[in-house]
Amino acid sequence: MEVLSTILQLKQFIYHKKEQKQTIGFVPTMGYLHKGHESLMQKAKLECDIVILSIFVNPLQFGPNEDYEVYPRDIDRDLQIAKEMNVDVVFSPSVEEMYPSEVYTKVSVSNLTSRLCGASRPGHFDGVSTVVMKLFNIVEPDKAFFGQKDAQQVAVIKQMVSDLNMNVEIVACPIIREEDGLALSSRNVYLNNNEREQAIKLFEALEHSERWIDENVTIEELKRQLYDHIASAPLAKIEYIEILSYPDLQSLEGNVTQLLVNKEIIIALAVKFGKTRLIDNRIYTGNTINVKREPDLGGIVYV
Ligand code: PAF
Q: Given 18, 94, 151, 178, which residue has the most CB atoms within 10 angstroms?
């Protein structure tokens, strides 16, 4: 496995691989790798000849009062995991390498970014789409792999790729969970024991949503049920509970089962426990008779 820190080194590596007609799979991350990231590397390895993993905590996507400085980092452990996953190259640039001077050009995807995390974290998705665009220009991947836990991020990146005619296929991979259902996230490490115990309410609420939908609820009623369940955790500070169409993220009204006849629906949650902000989601798709969970996207995978 090669560990490269400059754009030039990486471009040279990729130039040779492309000359040899090798396909490139790319897994962009901010490091502190967990089983969710491992599932992306695994999928990339299955689908592409060469796997490139980037580890870069991108300052552009953090707000002034967010956790950029304290975001968990452990490059030695990450390199060990990448090696075990048979990654070919880890690209781990410095901030100066990625942003040698003030950034004048940003990529901004509108509409999809006005809600959910886009509303609670102003500028976040501009930071994400700008760095992902830069990384795509450097790596020129055939396929790039993202976790569906960040469902809004997946929708935003897909939109950017489509709007700008970029030659990369975006592959969304299922959410990976702890045994009790908590979605894996690098930020889970911030949770203390009490917060960790109560954080399970997000997954429980998503699990119960299947039954509530079967009971023929409206969007408002479903939101209320989700709210009541999560709010029963004394430490939960709910940032949003939203039920929107997916991937276009439009508001919905009316009976959920009827809406599912011709729409995909996302239940998206953001809840703080202490200082830790957790997100989770489930995507439902339906047909005229049965509501069913989307197996590829919202399907549960335990580690
Ligand atoms: O999902 C993440 O880890 C980040 O948002 C990404 C895509 C690596 C961009 O910094």
A: 151
Q: In 10 A of CB 5, how many CB atoms? A: 12
Which atom of ligand 1 lies closest to the CA of 132? 9
User: Does ligand 1 come within 6 angstroms of the Cβ of 109?
Assistant: no
- According to the 3-state scheme, what is the secondary structure of 199-252? CHHHHHHHHHHHHHHHCCCEHHHHHHHHHHHHHCCCCEEEEEEEEEECCCCCEC
Residue 122 structure tokens: 């102003």
pLDDT in tens, 271-300: 999 999 999 999 999 753 444 455 444 445
Count of residues making up the chain: 303
Q: Whose CA is nearest to atom 1 of ligand 1?
A: 29
How do residues 64-85 score in pLDDT, each as one tens digit?
999 999 999 999 999 999 999 9
Q: Report the SS3 class of residue 291.
A: strand
Confirm whether pTM is higher than 0.70: yes
Structural domains present in the chain: 2-173 (3.40.50.620), 186-302 (3.30.1300.10)
